[in-house]
Amino acid sequence: MEEREPKSGLYWYEGERQMMPVIPLRGLTAFPGMVFHFDVGREKSVNALEKAMLGNQNIFLVTQKNAETDLPTAEDYFTVGTIARIKQMLKLPGDSVRVLVEGLTRGEILESMAEVPCIEALIAEILEEEWEETPPPLEALSRILLDSFGEYVATSSNVPDEALSVVESIPHPGRMADSIAAHMEIKVEAKQRILELFDLEERLTMLNEIVRKETEILKIEEELGKKVRTKLNRNQKEYYLREQLKTIQEELGVDDSAVSEIKDLNDKLKELKLDKKIHEKIQKEIDRLSRMQPGSAEATVIRAYVDWVFDLPWNQYTAKSIDLKAAEKQLDDDHYGLKDVKERILEYLAVMELAPNVKAPILCLVGPPGVGKTSIAKSVATAMGRSFVRMSLGGVRDEAEIRGHRRTYIGSIPGRIINGMKEAKTMDTVFLFDEIDKVGNDFRGDPASALLEVLDPEQNKEFTDHYLEFPFDLSKVFFITTANALDTIPRPLLDRMELIEVPGYTEHEKVKIAERHLIPKQLADHGLSKETLRISESALHDIINFYTRESGVRNLERRVAGICRKAARRIVEGRAKHVKISSKNLAAYLGKPVFHYDVIEDEGLVGVTTGLAWTAVGGATLSIETSAVAGKGSVSLTGQLGDVMKESARAGISYIRSIADQVGVSRDFYDKYDIHIHIPEGATPKDGPSAGVTMCLAILSTLTKIPARQAVAMTGEITLLGKVLPVGGIREKVLAAHRAGIRKVLLPRENGRDLEELPDEVRKVMEFVLIDHMKDAIPHVLTKKPKPKAKKKKAQPGAASRAGGTKRTATAGVS
Known about the structure:
Largest sheet: 8 strands, mixed
Structural class: alpha/beta
Helix content: 40-55%
Number of strands: 30
Distance between the termini: 83 Å
Strand content: 15-25%
Radius of gyration: 43 Å
Shape: elongated
């Protein structure tokens, strides 16, 4: 250790340096001028005393940082202590020694020199200046400190009045401050801080603050003591009555455990700090329980009720600061895409950081199955550092599932919301209502109506469960709901939620999700690694195109799992050490392709048009077929069409009648021909306003004998005047067209704003024509002259991957 220059400061300086034995003290701080005794039992400490007695009888006393440490080293005690002189030693039974010492000066350990047979260190004396007349600043601080200490002595019952006289007789401000600190009943850490202050002004100032604080605490303790003493007589009376009650209960055969149980319940109730009305209600139930036989049926019901109340997370919140960057990274790591959902969550977290008391939003994630609605809710909870509770509402028909059973019924329990809060253990959990669009109702009540109170930010602060019979605060709970469709959700319930659409994934997004999430997960589940099984990107494209047909990735994950199982078997049987899946050998693992895509060379068919529809599982393409045969003008619609689609068909026929001369159709066609409109897959019900344009063009193609282009898809509703009205589900419909290989889509002009929601990779290869009127659609669909029928070619696995999917047109943009 390099020798340092001696230190000094205002009113103090560093004196002589000398080797000295050291004794670490447990729970005790020695000050200069302090005469006290302590017992020494540790071998090193006894050796230090003996070595000091052989020398100048000086020893260095320093305080341990942790009193529990039995064999302290240099890191276990402070460096600043007191140089003391041994005045007397007395051996006690058990090899321990009682020693009387007097503190001389402060000291500081410069270097530890030895640990055995005793602790020795190089100590620097810290000396204070002496004056004939105390400097004015120190004199002023000393007087203030003496006044504060006098008030402390007057308030404290543990410090004798003589202590003030002793302190007042000390002329030196530093020694006076040390004497006051020695008399104070404060923690060892506080005394050590005073000991380490060499500067007298700082020491006097800090000690004055401590004395004033301790005086205030003593005054508060005294006031509380007076209040306790005023209640003493009443408590003695209650004690006497309880003893009498205990004797009576013993005579009646009541078990002592029942009495202790009531006491425990009362103690728990006091700790909860509930609202006055709730506290009184629970106290009433506990009092009723105390008057009952423990084994009675009613006592069991009350005990279960009280236990439920105590198990709820009263005033328990997640104590965690919000890190927006970490939350955003968590969401991005867990899910690819879903930009709108992530932005809304991060916005809420930012607002919560600025306004902690803001009401939690109620989000409804709407989208087809398998797109990650439930998993994103889990990621939200992880990103926020909160607990997560999931409640599935699919098939729930009993209102008691939400509000609980009334306690008048045998076996009654709280609803699943209160049960979820019990499991969450915090008042600000993330609570997921899964499949809210599948809630039912029957003679047992309407659960959807019961959810109105839960999902209303203005009401859920006082949600009342029938079992609890008092309001419970749900305002801090972050509710998230999921749904596949909105038409089955009651309008009042839908109005209380903020809707966020979670659309289907594009082929590019599915590939990225598979590479980042699905494949690593399945490899881990099947005991494989990236080295033992590799699935090429071309194989993923083929799995998506020829083995799955969905908006989400659920079936894609099943296909990947199937590949993992077969690969695991090959490796275990010793037929391969590594497996690589490509487009060429994909069929060996998944079998023949399940789905096929027709590559259309701009084929024209009379009376057949391609429409787009929205379903609960995403978008879909519809092939609408029409025929006109000699008859009496009847209209037949088949394929399980709903009333809205039937009305659209009739509106299309009426429009064609109004423009018959302009399009070359006989005026009396509706008298000469029977028109039949059919949409294949008749087992599937179909309805909605999106097929008006498609059916009108199919009928017009049949009547004019002009082929309709199959590579053009369309959607939109029409009026009797031929105006094209906007429809919903544009993103899902366009993605369905993209999956089917269609690259030209006709849309209502007002739906042009929805194109911004489409992925870039879809917009780049698609042509969108925005139309206001049916006349705008006719040139794009009906060809002037019938073209020779082109052969449909089946897209083969591998080809789609190399070409980037099914057939793509070169034109891109919006007309």
